[in-house]
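Example 3.2
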Amino acid sequence: MAKPSVIIEEVLGRSKQGFTEPFICRGDDGAIYFVKGRGAGRRSQVCEWVAAQLATELTLPIAEYTLAEVPEELVEVGVFPDIQQLGAGIVFASRELPHPQELTTITRDLVSAETATDILVFDWWLHNEDRHLTERGGNPNLLWDMQGEGLVVIDHNQAFDRNFDAAKFLESHVFATHWNDIFSDHLERQRYSARLQAVLAKLPDIRATIPDSWWYLDEGLLADVSWDEIEVCLERCRREDFWNTP
């Protein structure tokens, strides 16, 4: 299990965006983090942590993240409403960006074709359907860094979706228009398959970093997530039918 690198010292608020409504906290390093604790669900924490590390391995522009520790005494004091939803122990923490803006259909056009395709393939691989943006709106779970003028990837709590709908994915994914660039190009499919399969070698190391507590709702009660289902989802990239569409 990986050791937390940040201790949460203060709870500043709670985000109203996103399904899990992460807590906004200050760490002992002085940085602000969006923190997903017990209330986000154990499955959410496991998916978030695994997906983040896979994104790092693929060199996607993901927001800086870490495991953090929420001290028991911070929860016991109860200085913030719903702090029991944060819970004591190890949590997932994503560092706040200084000048973020949610990606729009306008800033989407500033994203390079290579980055857009990388993210599209990544989400297809992880069965992450939660990256919608069309002319009618949506939630892309992508930020545009106004200062650095670059894309930042966030939020993978719904990765490894058991009810993944490939048709819906290709209809509404923020970068769905790039799909034919891959599907129609045998060499591109081979290149991406090789990249994904290379990352599979890292899975044992990634598995070893997951906090033991995240596999349980309470002592002796298993959470609704297993390593086997995650591994089965990722191993698809070895198969010929990986690129098949409805």
